[in-house]
């Protein structure tokens, strides 16, 4: 499997994002939260976006750092997301704390979060 995060996997559609936050479900593993919705109109099997709140990090430099860490962690662990071929998902990863976690800690939480997501979608 390729460990890439190509452009077609990035969540950019405003309608998909609105659908995500109006009808989406979420799973959390502190300090990460994954909001997801099954989106049959999506072009890809999986589209994902990342977000870090201005509430916790006032400086854009800090927000961008944690967004980069989230994207990298997703890129390295996306093989854990085993999704049925007929289902398509839109997802948003949210970093929800003032704590400055290391990349290793974020990666551990991301793995636990993806495992929790797998259990939720198998129900």
Automatic annotation (TrEMBL):
It catalyses: Endonucleolytic cleavage of RNA, removing 5'-extranucleotides from tRNA precursor. InterPro entries: Ribosomal_Su5_D2-typ_SF (IPR020568), Ribsml_uS5_D2-typ_fold_subgr (IPR014721), RNase_P (IPR000100), RNase_P_CS (IPR020539). It is an enzyme of class 3 (hydrolase). Transmembrane segments: none annotated. Its EC number is 3.1.26.5. Gene3D superfamilies: 3.30.230.10. The keyword tRNA processing applies. Consists of a catalytic RNA component (M1 or rnpB) and a protein subunit. Belongs to the RnpA family. RNaseP catalyzes the removal of the 5'-leader sequence from pre-tRNA to produce the mature 5'-terminus. It can also cleave other RNA substrates such as 4.5S RNA. The protein component plays an auxiliary but essential role in vivo by binding to the 5'-leader sequence and broadening the substrate specificity of the ribozyme. This is Ribonuclease P protein component. It comes from Flavobacterium okayamense.
């Amino acid at each position: 499997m390729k460990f890439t995060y190509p452009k077609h996997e990035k969540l950019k559609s405003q309608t998909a994002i609105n659908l995500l936050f109006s009808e989406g479900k979420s799973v959390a593993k502190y300090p990460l939260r994954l909001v997801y919705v099954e989106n049959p109109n999506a072009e890809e099997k999986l589209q994902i976006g990342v977000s870090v709140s201005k509430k916790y990090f006032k400086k854009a430099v800090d927000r961008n750092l944690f967004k980069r860490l989230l994207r990298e962690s997703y890129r390295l662990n996306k093989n854990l997301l085993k999704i049925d071929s007929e289902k398509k998902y839109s997802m948003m990863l949210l970093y929800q704390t003032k704590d400055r976690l290391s990349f290793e800690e974020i990666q551990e939480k991301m793995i636990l979060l993806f495992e929790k997501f797998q259990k939720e979608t198998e129900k």
